[in-house]
Design goal:
This protein is mainly alpha-helical. 67% of the residues lie in helices and 0% in strands. It contains 16 helices and no strands. It is globular, with a radius of gyration of 20 Å.
């Protein structure tokens, strides 16, 4: 067993390499939050059919919503007329990507893998939307999420407030764009406080897992005992399906898997199934999509994850991805260390602020389908 110092060194190496791109992603996410308001998404993703699923996927891919935040937003889309297919497409594609996770994927796994991950989110989202429209319980999906929709809501993409407002209530300043704060302050608040607060805990855990794998598993050790591709894909999917992990936090884990000898395709299976599914998502999908709709959603996700994984392994980009992962932890510049320190501060400060205000929040329930939101 390696010493804690070796684990911390490996963790810091991944953090510093990832930090400049992730900080840039936070900036882009803040600017995007000014454009993709919840009301705009509701108007765009209405109706049924493949065209509605297409709009849902195209809007969802760049949105910086984590695996938990996407649930109340999807429920809101259903309440405002989105069909079950469009809701399933949004629920599948959105948590897999986001401007922050796309840039972080580029940092650790290279541009080819980052582009292929976006393509995988698009394909899996469209497949889920079409499958649910074709096989799901049309008109029977309930758009309500379990429990009180106003308690423990996620932050919306716009300004960090509840993502599933009651349509019978008067729109708030956040929803109408009449926020008294200037645009630059709202963007900065979302990009450097609300978003890190959403993903910070999971990202820190993902970085630590990556450090443990990097310190304990020799490079390419799995390549010498590489199982058949279908067993590797099945293992990656078995880890990803029940795991609660956001798109950004899953990146260092997948990178460590590839560095240990797992194929890029198997890592992609994990990156598709991990963020797109967890116990809360599956439970609320049953309410929003119906029983057969949820079955169609899960089957389409499994099939597309294996298909995209096989495509990634078959294409000539696979060796380039493995080579990039093997060399990404080379010499770190002073800029990488400074960016890593800034990232740690951004992740820790919201967590400390949240702990300081915990007494004002409702106790978190493991069965809840949404995240806490301090008032």
């Amino acid at each position: 067993m390696p010493s804690p110092l070796i684990i911390l060194r490996e963790t810091w190496s991944v953090t510093a390499q990832m930090a400049p791109y992730l900080l840039l992603g936070f900036v882009a996410a803040g600017l995007l939050s000014l454009l993709l308001t919840t009301a705009l998404v509701q108007r765009a993703v209405g109706g049924r059919g493949w065209h509605a699923s297409l709009k849902a996927v195209l809007i969802g891919i760049p949105m910086p919503l984590c695996s938990c935040s996407v649930i109340p937003v999807t429920a809101t889309l259903r309440k405002h007329g989105a069909g079950p297919g469009a809701a399933a497409a949004f629920l599948t594609a959105t948590p897999q990507t986001g401007v922050d996770s796309i840039l972080a994927t580029h940092a650790l796994m290279g541009p080819w893998f980052a582009a292929f991950r976006v393509l995988a989110a698009f394909v899996s989202g469209m497949a889920a939307g079409i499958a649910v429209d074709a096989l799901g319980d049309r008109g029977k999906g309930n758009s309500e999420v379990p429990g009180d929709g106003r308690k423990g809501q996620s932050r919306c993409c716009r300004c960090g407030t509840g993502g599933a407002p009651d349509p019978t209530e008067k729109p708030t300043d956040c929803e109408t764009g009449l926020d008294a704060d200037p645009a630059w302050l709202r963007a900065a608040r979302f990009g450097f406080f609300d978003l890190p607060r959403d993903i910070g805990g999971h990202l820190i855990i993902g970085l630590l897992i990556s450090g443990v794998i990097g310190a304990t598993v020799p490079p390419d050790v799995l390549s010498s005992i590489c199982p058949p591709w279908y067993l590797a894909y099945a293992a990656a999917m078995a880890i990803g399906l029940p795991l609660y992990v956001c798109s950004t936090a899953s990146i260092p884990i997948a990178s460590a898997m590839i560095a240990s000898g797992l194929s890029p395709g198997a890592a992609l299976v994990f990156l598709i199934t991990g963020p797109a599914t967890n116990a809360a998502t599956i439970a609320t999908a049953t309410k929003m999509l119906g029983g057969w709709g949820t079955v169609a959603y899960l089957i389409s996700l499994m099939v597309t994850s294996w298909a995209m994984g096989a495509a990634a392994d078959a294409l000539p980009i696979a060796p380039a991805i493995s080579a990039h992962v093997a060399t990404h932890c080379g010499a770190l510049s002073a800029w990488h260390h400074a960016a890593g320190a800034a990232l740690c501060a951004i992740l820790v400060i919201p967590a400390l602020a949240r702990l300081g205000r915990r007494s004002d929040q409702c106790p978190e329930s493991h069965s809840a389908t949404t995240v806490e939101h301090p008032e």
